[in-house]
Amino acid sequence: MRLREMLPSECSILISEQRVARLGCCRDNQPYVVPIYYIRAEGQIFSFSMPGRKIEFMRSNPLVCVEIEHSTDQHRWKCVIIEGRYREFHEGTEKKHAWGILNVYNDWWEPGALNWGADEKPPGYLPIFFAISMDKVTGREALAS
Ligand SMILES: Cc1cc2nc3c(=O)[nH]c(=O)nc-3n(C[C@H](O)[C@H](O)[C@H](O)COP(=O)(O)OP(=O)(O)OC[C@H]3O[C@@H](n4cnc5c(N)ncnc54)[C@H](O)[C@@H]3O)c2cc1C
Fold first, then answer.
1. Is there an atom of ligand 1 within 6 Å of 48 CB?
2. Which of 57, 69, 105, 123 gets the highest tally of CB atoms within 10 A of its CB?
């Protein structure tokens, strides 16, 4: 097995192709890592969440790290690590925009279960929508030979 650095364009393809990421956040020197679904759009990572620990962490410290990977077997994998900043969407138009991006995959978990039309008020249990900037991106690939 050998390792190589991925080109920025290769990192970009992997981020666009995958849907599951590990989101790392940190508060008071305590790291916390959770899997999330995401969509890459407009040069950012878009996702959503109900209120909970990760949202509390990221509101407290918006500097986060995102890991995305794809492995064929233990000797062949690609992995990208992104360092960025959490930004929560507060305005209704921003939330609808983010929801529209995430709702592309309408079999998704919470957003897919929502039926929020353009002229309707959002339901009370609407998730928190957020984006993570991609300030630093590195990628490594393991090759079988
Ligand atoms: C493939 C996949 C995709 C997911 N996509 C999303 C998504 O897009 N958005 C989203 O909000 N959530 C997603 N989840 C669920 C997510 O991983 C969290 O479980 C959930 O969001 C709750 O996180 P929280 O920080 O609000 O935890 P809280 O509900 O506040 O949880 C409190 C405690 O519960 C424990 N806990 C929380 N989540 C997990 C977990 N997954 N495994 C083990 N222990 C846990 C931790 O110890 C945590 O401190 C996904 C999970 C998987 C497996």
1. yes
2. 57
Q: Using CA positions, which residue lies closest to atom 5 of ligand 1? A: 36
For ligand 1, is residue 89 a contact (CB within 6 Å)?
no
| 53 CB within 6 A, ligand 1 | yes
82, exposed or middle or buried, with CB in 10 Å at 0-12, 13-18, 19+?
Answer: buried
- Give DSSP secondary structure letters for 56-98: HHHHH--EEEEEEEEEEETTEEEEEEEEEEEEE--SHHHHHHH
CATH fold for domain 2-143: Pnp Oxidase; Chain A (2.30.110)
Q: Ligand 1 centroid to 136 CA: how many Å?
A: 25
Protein residue whose Cα sits closest to atom 48 of ligand 1: 53
